[in-house]
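haha ok so turns out i had the wrong file open the whole time. this is the CORRECT one, sorry everyone. sequence first:
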Amino acid sequence: MTPVVNRWLDLLDRAGWTAVQAAAAAVLVFATSGSDFSWQTLGTFVGGAVAIAVVKVIVGQRTGSDDTGSLIGTPVIEPPPEA
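then structure:
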């Protein structure tokens, strides 16, 4: 049986965690580099990362070898589902 992936939840999960990671990275960079911190800069940093993640997920869901969103050319579920 082939697994069914809810594409909206997959997108939300992947892009959401990208947002969390980007925000953490931005705060770390601002805290350690002495750069000026602004909410606009943080928003641009996180928004750019999330936009890239959304595009990656959409491309993966439409072009991968299955509907799991994997772009690496092989199923990410082990063992692969049997037809």
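Residues 7-33 form the longest helix (27 residues).
again sry for the mixup
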